[in-house]
Amino acid sequence: MFQEISAQELCFNPFSKIGKEWMLITAGTKEHCNTMTASWGALGVWWGKNALTCYIRQSRYTKEFIDSNDTFTVSFFEESYRKALSLCGSVSGRDCDKIKEASLTPIALENTVAFEEASMIFVCKKLYADEMPAQQFLAKEMDEKWYPDHDYHTMYIAEIQKIFVKK
After folding, report:
1. Could you tell me the CATH number of the domain that includes residue 30?
2. CA neighbor of 118 nearest in space, from 67, 149, 78
3. Please, what's the b/e burial string for 32-52 (b: 16 or more CB within 10 A of its CB; e: otherwise)?
4. For the whole model, what pTM was predicted?
């Protein structure tokens, strides 16, 4: 169902893929996991490794899963899954089984979890994490615009260990 490819084989616009199409960040096991929709992130090379940077608010349930696991996945989907991604970004897994409500099927993948419906999956290993405190913002208007409740993000930089695309 999925085929592994190298990072050099990737051919997409990260600004569209992340910022417009969104992604699901998922951690845990097939039996016990949580996921969240994200539209902020970056791709590049860090410490000589293919890397992904993502940001998770302190209040997000998924953060507990990310923090307690070494690996996580980032999954991308076709446009037909927009409603599922919207749901996964608007309700908490603490309050309901949003994965089931979104009609997504968890699959075990490389000691973590992803979704059968994804079109592309990055398996990521955490390399670095840091809090993003308000006093570090150089553009103060960003604090006012994005953090009215002072619910700041943690930044994670992770090595993209494997990339899978749907056959």
Report:
1. 2.30.110.10
2. 78
3. ebbbbbbeebebeebeeebbb
4. 0.94
